[in-house]
User: Fold these one by one.
Assistant:
Number 1:
Amino acid sequence: MIVLRYIGSRLLFLVPQLIGIVLVGFVLIKAVPGDPATLMLGPMASADSIAKLRGDLGLDQPMPTQFLIYLEKLIRGDFGTSWQTTQPVLSDLRTRFPATLELVTYGLLLALLIAIPLGVFTAATKRRAIRKLGGAYGLIAGALPDFWLALVLVFIFYSQLHWLASPIGRIDLSVVPPDTITGFYTIDSLLTGNWEALVSSVQHLILPVITLGLINAGPILKMTQSTMERMLGSDFSQYERLCGLPRQLIVRHAFRNGLPSIITIVSVLYGFLIGGAVLVEIVFSWGGAGQYAVQGVLNSDFNPVLGFVIFSALFSLIVYLIVDLAYLAIDPRIRH
Amino acid sequence: MALIRQARDEPLSVGSKKPVLETDNLTVSYRPYGLPPVEALRKVNIKIAPGEILGLVGESGAGKTTLAKAIMGVIAKPGVVESGRLLFNGTNLFQLSEEKLNQLRGASISIIVANPRGELNPLLMVGQQLANIARIHMRVSARQARQLALDMLKAVKIPDPVRRFRAYPHELSGGMAQRVVIAAGLICSPQLVISDDATSGLDVTVQAQILDLLKKLARERQTSMLYITRDIGVAANFCDRIAVLYKGEIVEEAPTGAFFEGPSHPYGNLLLAAFSHNSVLRKRWSTELEQLQKRETPALACLFVDRCPLRQGRCWQEHPELRDLTPGRLIRCHYPVLRHRP
């Protein structure tokens, strides 16, 4: 019951938060120089036709009016149209946002699989050399650019070894993508029993997911290791040792106490990677949301950019809500 | 009170009563990197008989907690056990593997800590923490362990034990958390319980209740105790025998009654006088800080010489050995304070 009320109050705050984000995003994007009308009509267009298009697009209105018009459309579920794709932004994002989300989710899962056991182990071990190894991994993963690692992986596993399909897009051009249910090709193809699509999409996921996983395991490993060291050195762990509890149990208890810090960094990374994975998306021609937004920025195509901002803000807010609920489940002190 | 006071000469092994714990010339030092080592315990010899409560008093920095850690086998770097033996029921604990030690800790030797709310796991129900200890050491089922934990919570007189079983540490008052930690220390009916300044953070009235309870439980279970404290008043009421630790050395050891009738070591007198309301008495035994001799204490001097109001020339040159003063009383002083007994 308390939890439901908590969720309710948080969702109530979601609306003003989103309006604030839209406002700031709108103002900042409009502040970027560049006139879409000029770009849309090309260099040969007459001043008259540009002025007419500006009027049609509402660009001649004062900024507050433009914002209100945008907001009013938004409430009706209209995110505007991208002049580059000539599609409604909403339908573009419906395919592109899940594409990025699928990539980032699997990437983070891999990062967790690498970082958590390694972080716990390097913190719990008594051997200094292994501890140092954990620190070294964090340093290297932090220093390597993700797109560089992506290119190296493509070079080795595609160009040299030919183990994988050509690293372009989410699925082979010759394979029919699965019907959209969640937007995740892997899950949709599983649900519809489209095995050919499953194999192909997994093949295309492998390299970018490994890239994101290896790079993002760095900060998670670092956080896990330092949190675990702190927890294992804390009074309650020392006391459990004095009580003769087995080391495994002490480590498990310490991990549970350190979990909030680890969840925090994972949630921050999750929100960040929606836009932050764009270089990896470009290397693999992923056609995701990040790429979509960057093209929008470069071509003064405002609607996709704003749509991306709203989508990723909403996503981050949902992730943070889930994180808060996780804290609530873990720590009895917060329930009061 | 059936105090077990035994003379040193007919050592604590009267009949079959071998000491539960015996330290044999235990020396522990801290060797911080790049700094000269500091001896925290110097050839400490103590014995605790079954069912006996030995009080260990001394100021902070005397090595009390180091002794507790040494007995629990958790001396951490830069601490090093330099020499000596630590005999528990005749077994040298320093020769046991970490795994074997872990089976003793919490089961045969347990410790009751101060600041219990900081020591308990904040994310686990306190009853569950007790049950964990019971389940692991006594190899009982989870259900039996929970029952044992509940019984123990009742034994330490926690009000509403069924509800408190499900409480988290932050929901307990200091006194209640202290009871939980006592329950944790006693749940496996250990042979030796160490209490390290355990009740010092509590209100005086709560402290008295908890000490009574602790003593009652220890007596019922024939548990020996090493009661470490800075509060000499508490030690007077609680312990069978008193050992005074100063700079890592035992300087005096006596049955409680005899000690409080009149300590023999100048430092023992200083400790008692410090608790006195008589300012003349206090002044007589304490040395003002500015009066402390600035000169370097020679390596062979008595460790207390710079603060001793009774020091003489010999004290600067010759380190006193621990010796029998009267049967059952040990003293490390060339010029002990002697009183005429009525």
Number 2:
Amino acid sequence: MSPAGSTAVLQAHELRFTWPGAAAPCIDIAQFEVRAGEAVFLHGPSGCGKSTLLSLLAGVLVAGSGRVSLLGQDWAALGGSARDRRRVAHVGYIFQQFNLLPYLSVMDNVLLPCRFSARRRAQGSRAQAEQLLTGMGIGADLWERSALQLSVGQQQRVAAARALVGRPEVVIADEPTSALDEDRREAFLDVLLAACASHGSALVFVSHDRRIAERFGRHVLLPEINRAAAHAQPA
Amino acid sequence: MTALLSIAWKSAWNRRFTLALTVFSIALATLLLLGVERIRTELRENFASAVSGTDLIVGARTGSTQLLLYSVFHIGSATNNIGWKSVQALEQHPGVAWVVPLSLGDSHRGFPVVATTRAYFAHVRRGEQLLDEGQPFSGLFDAVIGADVAEQLGYRIDQKITLAHGTGELTPEHADKPFTVVGILKRTGTPIDRTVHIGLEAMEAIHLEWAGGTPMPGLKIPAEQVRKFDLRPKNVTAALVGLKNRAAVFAVQRWVQTYPEEPLMAILPGVALDELWQVIGVGEKALLALSGLVGIVSLAGLVSVVMAGLNERRRELAVLRAVGAGARHVLALLALEGAIVTVLGVALGTLLAALGIAALGPWLHAHYGLALRLAAPTLNEGLLLAALLAAGWLASLLPGVRAYRLSLADGLSPRI
């Protein structure tokens, strides 16, 4: 277990972001940070800017003003491809659904970040991927199958294994349980939280489903910190 | 980059049925372009080979293209003949190595008859061995036939044939003076294949009792008696001329043009052929442009297939972005896919063209005398292929750029 509350892995300071063509900013946050190893539950109604904030934290979008940094490095100071490299080196990402490339096997899907990032390759391995998959309840008989042959719940767990392979400091999950029924949702949260804890990765988990909030150490209601939430809509 | 290559390949393989159609349409466009280009080149070579070795063609004054067409290709007819004395004077010219006189006008079942001398077999087509079997005509009523004549009419050596006066189907026959086939020529892909060759004296002999295009009533000269008459030709249609030194070609041409006894003209077959190509070239270019359009249509197909698939692939591209592929990788992925599809299409088209030439070549040669050879691409074909590859790749950049923009705008959460 890695100690929560030590150093900040993600920091946002006086962050403002306006979608091109929009009149008002979508994100306006004075201060937000995620510490190493902590599991943050970020929630709020649809359209309050959750996905936009995640894109800003992951360096896919760059702040209009203010500062967003990953491990102390300001995203805005980096060029497009440097951000791409830094993102894959330090961040694992899980989508709501359709996380896997249908033409790759389960194992190849998990190892994808290692193809693009030397750091993930150095800290990850096939053995680690096997261990993660086994931990997620994906048996060895499924590893070489096409990702399409898996159930939705299995696909989300494979995506979680992929987000964690190579020990990134941060895992960002964008409503990964919304396509799952209740039993699968609980099972998925069990394995995701356990894996993040054992790898020492911080988890930013976005959902509008407050029933699962109790599983997380820290809750953030986005409209409370986002001063733009009242009148903003993502483009 | 290798990671991307294998992903591009697997992604393309995943959509192989759609992409295969695109590959196939590019292959067809390639096949068409190559085919048209190859046939065009070979056609020109065939035409050029019909006059190869001949330095000048001499005939009565007319258009140079017209003289070339009727003397060599037996298309159209001469307006005037040239006197035998002029031919003899030409033979005496110090710069002239050989003269092959040609006398046209008769036909045999639709095939033109050319009366000439044995020099024909020694000099036409640079003196290459023309005879496939038999020998050149030596007796008065001997005939040597081209490969098409032999094949289409089923003639062999010793076949008796009668010639018709004029070139129509329903023309009076020289039935009283049958000829014997003594030689059959090799297939050349030139008008020679469709020609019946006889001696100039024979031409005179079968026309002894004729005047104004019909037999003179009441006059019958049996074949055995024609030798009693003067069978020296009085005039011929044209003459092929070879020079001792090609450098003298303009001097000899001028000599012919200013020949005092009779108005004559001499043409350089290569120049006349070029003039002919300038006319035919419009049609050729139209054909090539049409194939080019087919190429554009199939490339448009490539663009639309990739474009249409792009929306379905936004999720795939977002996943790639999430695992570390940059927007530039996405652009490269689509460009790579376009390149794979284009290269496969062009390669398949080239292969099909080669197979087509190998399979249809002998048949084309047998039926049309068109010698399509299996050869390495010519410079022109190479340029065509390069243009196709470049155009295909550029076309595939279009959806690539769109995907690049989409993936920049979508970030990690595609709105679909």
Number 3:
Amino acid sequence: MRTLRWLAIPILVVPLGWLLFTGFGRDPREVASPLIGQPAPAWELATLDGDTLSSEDLAGRPYLVNFWASWCIPSCVDEHPVLGSAWASQEGELMIVGVLYQDGADGARDFLARYGDAGYPHVLDPNGTLAVDFGVTGPPETFFVDADGIVRDRQVGPLTDALLAQRLAAVMPAAGLRR
Amino acid sequence: MNRVAVLAVVAVLAVVAVVAAVALRPAQSANLEARADALAAELRCPDCEGLSVADSPTAAAAEIRRQIEALLAAGATDDGVRAHFTARYGEWILLAPTSPLVWIVPFAVVAVGAAGLVVWVLGRRHAPAPEAAPLSEAERRRIHEEAEALDA
């Protein structure tokens, strides 16, 4: 009975401590997206260049939908060259679309002039409808869509080269070899 | 004569229908607005810390509010609106969890703890006083010696 009483303390304290320790290290926004395994939302939006781009234009190729903003500093600045080099190295086999999250064309153009424009298109989402359709909680956030138009993965927060290579494998298995 | 009467009834009914439709329309829209308010208070603003869509001034909250109103106007049920947003954000978007376990478990834990405490306290009260262990021969001898030393 006495042994049981002494055992009760670690039995109660250890799981509680573990829960608090791991819980504080987690980003509460990083919940699994219900879109994974589902068809990506359809959209048709104006690009920064004044053209129109739609999800149908991307059909048949894997693509990334990257929600970003010129005010998202430093995360979007840190992530910017990662996406630029992915765009350059995938030679058109991977499409990247930047979606402006609560940001206007002027801010985006200034950002691209300052930090470099890799050449992939950026679309304006003035009411944030596409951000809600993708369940975005804040920039940067990136969705990985395969050639069949199915969402395969999501990155909350800035992408690094390593994270991008890891997540790209979900939509284009050969990508890891080419990088 | 009958034909005139039928026409008159039809005309009266038509007028009543039009008046009723006009009179009810504001009531319906007020009802929709109340439902939209209630749903906005249930949904988490995605880019705030712990605020509902109803309480948040952000663009994302405004877009969610606009979508709630559009869905309700299109005839969606309250559950349909909730499902629309959980399909995008997951259950995270609902401020109150839907699983009944979340509400039941804390009360169950407190009840079990209280029951355990009662059992323990009652058990202590009714337990017989512990009997002293019999003295060993060495202890007996020592007591005897010390008592004699005190007397001396």
